[in-house]
């Protein structure tokens, strides 16, 4: 049978090409997704600026002793005294502190400042002038100096930590990562950044002859028990960019979701394509049964053909698969979804998993598709092939009903989820609904045909009536053609409106909370907290309040102990946190107290969202962690209401300002007094730039643009996933329609020989394609609706999803046009020959 299977390949070119394309593209996507998943597991970040130091010591961003690993969003600064202690370890030649801070040139853009010691870690080397040996001296990166038109001896104004300072350019330097960098003397860098006594990293150089790993082990022993970590190899990049620790782990669920969605689509596509290909060979299978072939032999025949095809397709997919994964990583990094410093690291595991998944999918689909022919009794074989009486099975019905139940359960979970989390439940729900309708497709399609057959047959006569009878007699074939249409249209509508609904929900929550007319920021990256009172006293100002956004954690009342271990310890509650000045908070935002008073937000206090303060009383001390890991106990002075999923804890800005990366206030919200024009107020506040260099005053559109940028990042990621998955489903749609049409040569030949014209055959195919498109689009809309309604209820409080209705129109029109176009083009190609010439074509 295996030998026969290989020989039959050349007699069914169309079906095998369609199956090959489905298997190849599916394997490429799965292998690429697997590579992305392994990259997230490794989370490797090769160093750039710190590449010269073999060992890097930095603050440990991990939140230890919790059930699930959490990462502090703000950089943990280290005691600068660690450098002297590490330098005394045997085998250490030098321990070099590294300090970085945001700054800006008064006549240029933002730059990153460092102490001169940091130049040794890159290394930077002087190309002109001298190192900054005293206060008031600065070294510029050569590329930066060229763009700004500066040279040694020139004077520049540097905006740093809310102040403007004058420096003389003592030299120019170049390095392997020569970018927007400036260097001050170490002591002055710590002073101007308000970081005296702390450092970001320490680069450790082993002495000549000392083994790097042995020195690293000695350093780890020294810092054991402190919130400090020792990095070597590719992990050193985490010290340059703490976002690798915080955001790099996001690549794992992202890749898993993307790969899982792709794998499920692959199962649908391959099963539909193989099923349709084998259904069209029912007569061949029937003839084999009548001459004595056993059911097992038929199964081996189909499995042998499919296995050979799958091995070739998946083998070829191993070449572009890793490249596709690398491309996906770059695309996510360009969009800002993951840090750019993460390196693609994928070995043989994604290849094995991708190939194995594709092979199992192909073999499973082929086995299921061959069951119908294998179960046929020899005496019924030819009638079975002609009439297609066995069009559904009890197993398929039961499995379809189970998927319906699973989809309903996920829909309930989606509706009950918080707005920002609802999409995480809705995405698998879409695939479960698609599986349910796919399994029950013959039943649904048969019902649709029964409803549509009579009106269709009355449209324009015999050709339309014949098309309706074909659809009724060949429900299985029609259902196989409908599934890719359902998948493409359902996923397109579902995923697009899922993103637009999430965007509308986030935008609505943002707009409802913002009441300020003017926003004050700084080119230097932040403003001193004292500027809020100065702004509040300006004419035309009704209210002003600082805003310092970050993330914090509610800790259990009982202290978290190392003995509890990562797997058994309690899980802190992560929540958004906003540092504010209480005066004017009610005029610049929509926050109001449900209990207590927001004016009491002074000193070590907190206003928690009401949902997080159910078991607490006003006046209780709440154990919390700030964004940089600092433990605090804050007095509960108020509770605030908030839209579910968008709740925020309010903390005095004075508590948070020293525990963020910048150490300053990023923005101050200002509301205009009654009768004051916001534009005139902006101009008035701009005069404060004399006291506060770098101050920028803009309208609220700046915050709206920032919100839109953040939303665009999520939207771009969603549309990338949409493009790949729906693109694959669309390819399967074209693939299947072409296969379903070109394999009907014999049928078209007979129609032409009995007098049907080419136009009549094309008219019949137009009606059949319309039925396929209509059924597929209706099923797709059912899948999308079952997914989007609970999501919209969770996010927007209404059953109607957010987004333009033109998206729905475009998807429906595209699916219909694509189905009709591919069917008619394929039918036209088959009908080019004369009927007499077609009589010699073998089935």
From TrEMBL:
InterPro entries: ABC3_permease_C (IPR003838), Membrane_comp_ABC_pdt (IPR038766)
Membrane topology summary: Multi-pass membrane protein
Transmembrane regions listed in the UniProt entry: 12-37, 251-277, 298-319, 349-370, 391-412, 432-452, 478-498, 716-740, 761-786, 806-831
Residue intervals of the ABC3 transporter permease C-terminal domain: 257-376, 720-832
Location(s) in or outside the cell: Cell membrane
Spans annotated as Disordered: 551-571
Major localisation: membrane
Keywords: Cell membrane, Membrane, Transmembrane, Transmembrane helix
Pfam families: FtsX
Protein name, entry field: FtsX-like permease family protein
Source species: Streptomyces cinereospinus
Lineage, uppermost ranks: Bacteria, Bacillati, Actinomycetota, Actinomycetes, Kitasatosporales
């Amino acid at each position: 049978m295996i030998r026969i299977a290989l020989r039959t390949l050349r007699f069914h070119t169309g079906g095998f090409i369609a199956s090959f394309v489905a298997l190849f593209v599916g394997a490429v996507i799965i292998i690429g997704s697997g590579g992305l998943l392994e990259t997230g597991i490794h989370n490797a970040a090769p160093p750039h600026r710190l590449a010269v130091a073999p060992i890097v010591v930095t603050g440990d961003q991990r939140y230890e002793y919790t059930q699930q690993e959490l990462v502090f969003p703000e950089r943990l600064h280290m005691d600068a005294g660690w450098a002297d202690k590490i330098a005394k370890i045997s085998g250490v030649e030098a321990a070099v502190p590294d300090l970085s801070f945001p700054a800006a040139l008064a006549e240029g853009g933002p730059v990153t400042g460092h102490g001169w010691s940091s130049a040794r870690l890159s290394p930077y080397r002087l190309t002109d002038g001298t190192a900054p040996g005293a206060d008031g001296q600065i070294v510029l990166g050569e590329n930066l100096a060229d763009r700004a038109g500066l040279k040694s001896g020139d004077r520049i104004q540097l905006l740093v930590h809310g102040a403007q300072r004058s420096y003389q350019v003592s030299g120019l330097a170049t390095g392997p990562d020569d970018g927007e960098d400036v260097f001050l003397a170490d002591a002055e860098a710590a002073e101007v950044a308000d970081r005296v006594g702390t450092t970001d990293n320490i680069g450790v150089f082993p002495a000549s002859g000392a083994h790097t790993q042995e020195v690293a082990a000695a350093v780890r022993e020294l810092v054991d028990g402190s919130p400090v970590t020792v990095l070597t190899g590719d992990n050193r990049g985490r010290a340059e960019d703490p976002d690798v620790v915080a955001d790099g782990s996001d690549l794992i669920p992202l890749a898993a979701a993307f790969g899982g969605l792709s794998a499920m689509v692959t199962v649908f596509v391959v099963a539909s394509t193989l099923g349709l290909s084998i259904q069209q060979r029912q007569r061949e299978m029937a003839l084999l049964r009548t001459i004595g072939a056993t059911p097992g032999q038929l199964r081996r025949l189909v499995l042998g053909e499919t296995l050979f095809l799958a091995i070739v397709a998946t083998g070829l997919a191993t070449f572009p698969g890793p490249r596709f994964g690398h491309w996906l990583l770059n695309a996510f990094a360009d969009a800002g979804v993951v840090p750019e410093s993460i390196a693609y690291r994928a070995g043989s595991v994604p290849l094995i998993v991708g190939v194995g998944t594709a092979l199992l999918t192909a073999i499973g689909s082929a086995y299921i598709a061959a069951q119908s022919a294998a179960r046929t009794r020899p005496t019924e074989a030819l009638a079975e092939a002609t009439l297609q009486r066995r069009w559904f099975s009890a197993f398929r019905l039961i499995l379809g009903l189970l998927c319906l139940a699973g989809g309903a359960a996920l829909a309930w979970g989606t509706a009950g989820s918080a707005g920002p989390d609802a999409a995480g439940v809705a995405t698998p729900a879409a695939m479960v609904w698609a599986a349910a309708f796919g399994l029950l497709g013959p039943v649904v399609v048969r019902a649709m045909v029964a409803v549509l057959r009579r009106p269709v047959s009355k449209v324009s006569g015999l050709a339309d009536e014949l098309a309706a009878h074909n659809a009724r007699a060949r429900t299985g074939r029609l259902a196989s053609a409908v599934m890719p249409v359902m998948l493409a249209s359902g996923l397109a509508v579902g995923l697009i409106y899922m993103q637009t609904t999430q965007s509308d929900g986030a935008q609505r929550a943002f707009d409802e909370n913002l009441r300020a007319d003017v926003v004050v920021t700084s080119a230097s990256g932040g403003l001193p907290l004292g500027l809020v009172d100065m702004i509040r006293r300006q004419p035309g100002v009704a209210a002003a309040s600082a805003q310092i956004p970050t993330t914090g954690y509610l800790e259990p009342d009982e202290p978290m102990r190392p003995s509890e271990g990562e797997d058994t310890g309690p899980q802190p509650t992560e929540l958004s946190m906003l540092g504010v000045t209480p005066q004017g908070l009610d005029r610049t935002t929509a926050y109001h107290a449900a209990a207590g008073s927001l004016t009491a937000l002074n000193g070590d206090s907190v206003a928690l969202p009401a949902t997080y303060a159910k078991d607490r009383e006003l006046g209780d001390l709440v154990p919390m962690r700030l964004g940089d890991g600092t433990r605090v106990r804050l007095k509960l002075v108020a509770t605030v209401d908030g839209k579910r999923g968008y709740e925020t804890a309010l903390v005095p800005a004075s508590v948070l300002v020293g525990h963020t990366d910048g150490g300053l206030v990023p923005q101050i919200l200002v509301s205009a007094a009654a009768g004051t024009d916001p534009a005139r107020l902006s101009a008035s506040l701009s005069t404060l730039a004399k006291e506060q260099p770098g101050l920028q005053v803009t309208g609220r559109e700046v915050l709206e643009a920032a919100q839109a940028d953040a939303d665009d990042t999520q939207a771009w990621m969603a549309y990338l996933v949409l493009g790949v998955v729906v693109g694959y489903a669309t390819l399967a749609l074209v693939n299947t329609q072409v296969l379903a049409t070109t394999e009907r040569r014999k049928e078209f030949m007979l129609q032409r020989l009995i007098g049907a014209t080419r136009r009549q055959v094309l008219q019949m195919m137009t009606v059949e394609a319309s039925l396929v498109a209509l059924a597929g689009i209706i099923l797709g809309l059912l899948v999308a609706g079952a997914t989007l309604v609970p999501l919209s209820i969770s996010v927007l409080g209404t059953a109607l999803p957010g987004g333009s209705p033109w998206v729905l129109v475009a998807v429906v029109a595209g699916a219909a046009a694509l189905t009709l176009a591919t069917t008619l083009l394929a039918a036209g190609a088959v009908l080019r020959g004369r009927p007499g010439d077609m009589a010699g074509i073998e089935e």
